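Annotated sample (chain length 577).
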Amino acid sequence: MSILKAKIKHWRSIGDDPGVELDLGRITVLSGENDSGKTAILMGIYGTMKSLRDRHDEFLIENVYLAGSKHQKSNGDIVDESQFSVITTLPTEVRRHVIKQLAQPVASKIHHPELVEKLSYLFNHLIMYKYENTNLRETNDPYGAAGKFSFDESIEITYLKLLDKYYHDIKEVGSLLKLCNWLSMTLRSGGEFEYRSFFISPNRSYTPQQQEMKSKKEDASYLGYNVSELVGFIQKIRTEEMMRKGLYKRLLHYVKVLFPEVISISTNIPEGMNGYDVFIEWKVNGVSKTQPLTRSGSGVVSAVYLAGRLLSGSDHQTIGFIDEPETGMHPKLQVRFLKLLRELSDDFEIQWIVSTHSPFIMKNLKDKDRLYLIQHDGSETIARAIEPNDKSTVFQAIGAYLPDTISSKGFIFVEGTTESTLMPLLLKKCEVDIEQEGIIIIPMGGENIYSISPSDLTKIHPKAMVILDSDLVQSVSSGGHLTKKKRDYQQACFKEGVECYISTDYRTIENMYPLRALHKVLKLAEGEVSDNPFTDLSPWISNKIALAKRIAEEMTPEEATNFPYIRAIMQWWEKDH
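Output written by the structure step:
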């Protein structure tokens, strides 16, 4: 059983002419500019599936706002009823029922065994189930969410031609619609909507403080990353029975699709915390390290969450909705993440609906996948199917066409999304617009930056710069020292003419934030955070990217100009200018 189509009318920015109709594949990707309606489509289909299963959902209650989601026509009229439908293949039980019914009453009216055989094939392979819902309304009637038999309109012509070929009158055998209605009435069970679903938003978080508060609520389904939920997945997978079945080995395999360096996954209580967390052990260049997910990037959290959820048996016949999966992932990880989705889809009965701006994800779609360009024409949202070999249409529409980078005047490679988010904001405060200047800032993702040779960086652009955190726990004068990997990489950059800036005066980029701004944004008491530039600030920071945005807003132009990374960028940029 799989979901073939989804249709939405009169929902948020989606009207009824034509509305939005999607043919779903193994992975269905929605792409388009901001505010084009991608999230409206995701939430509409997700809400429909939840409503059809009569499942209370805390996230929908808190975020969908049904009254505010009514579609407003271009003339200002508000449409009261939003219409949703999903079309699926038949469940096995229902398929058997259809063949059995056709072999009895219908077959008795047909004199040609060959016609009976062809009609059986028609119903067995081409009949579909259509589930409809209005205003994402939940129903308490167990049969209210039952599907109705449905055919594509083109099948009606095939049916009539078959009857005519074998000299049967439609009044004698019955119209296709009449047969569908009759089959629906004879069905006693098996037509209920059995698909499960989960939604991962780009604002997902993995912080114990937030989850501790949420865990006090009952009967709620949380769509972010829930600490206790993830711990439960891993603890179940690591039981003796599940280990014997090879589930832990499979979990490691899936996580290694994204991160080949991971060697073990377990649960334990992190230092300074009361509850359990998931721990990841890495081995890079022969050196092992272990850290909890609460101190890990979103890429590894996504991999553990998806694989752990499916392997622990939480979902079968599932649709996974992911809004902007590229958040926090550099290009190489984005491609690997798509590979992970593909493997999970092949190994489990699961389809994916993804919204993204990432050209790296779109570029690597396969024949079983579907790609849609979502646009707003001024009146409503429309969805345009894109052929796999015509992805450049989407790239150009969202401004993500990769060859455009050739026209840039310089590249800055940074470790992560925090840097690539903060730097443009601070440069703008210094009256430097990176788009006008032609500066491209690319997050490479921590350790992965070392896999790119400095000589290859110059092939991308002759004017290139690399910015790395020192990660020092104490000053150089007090005995601190850069890792050999950082020192070697910096020397290799200098040899190739690539500027490589590592500030040994600070531990990380967060330590460079003005204390005034840091205390104000985090609402800390004066002196609560030490002015030691090598202090570990992670206990006070739950979301580095969100903090970076707020710090950038709070900083004055003078503070932005004196920010160490900005000073280094300005000195590099002014050379040869």
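Annotation: The chain has four domains: 1-91+317-400, 92-129+151-186, 223-311, 408-574.
Annotation: The radius of gyration is 28 Å.
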